[in-house]
Design goal:
The protein has 105 residues and is an alpha+beta fold. It has helices at residues 25-36, 42-51; strands spanning 11-13, 19-22, 55-57, 73-76. Helix content is 21%, strand content 13%. A 4-stranded antiparallel sheet has the order 1-2-4-3, with no helix packed on it. It is found in: Nucleus.
Amino acid sequence: MINDPKSQHYIMWTEHGTSFVVSNVGEFSRSILGSHFKHNNFSSFVRQLNMYGFHKINRTPRAQRTSTSSQTWEFSHPKFLRERPDLLDAIKRKALEPDPRERGR
């Protein structure tokens, strides 16, 4: 998706290729997510990224942030780098932590 020329208006690598940026979240969700996932919900996309160890990079001060759909979101993962497909196998889903309420039962 990130290397697809049809997606370049919505998702792209940063200059150094160590993170990627999603811009125009509303249009990205409508035009891109549904063709790659079973949903077009940006919050679900972010949740999935978090489950695989990606981190959001905040570059906009809180006072200057606008609505979610018009924000630019940047994400990084130490093993998700431009021109390094050999690292992709090292990206694993985080293990689920046990529910603390289940202890002692």
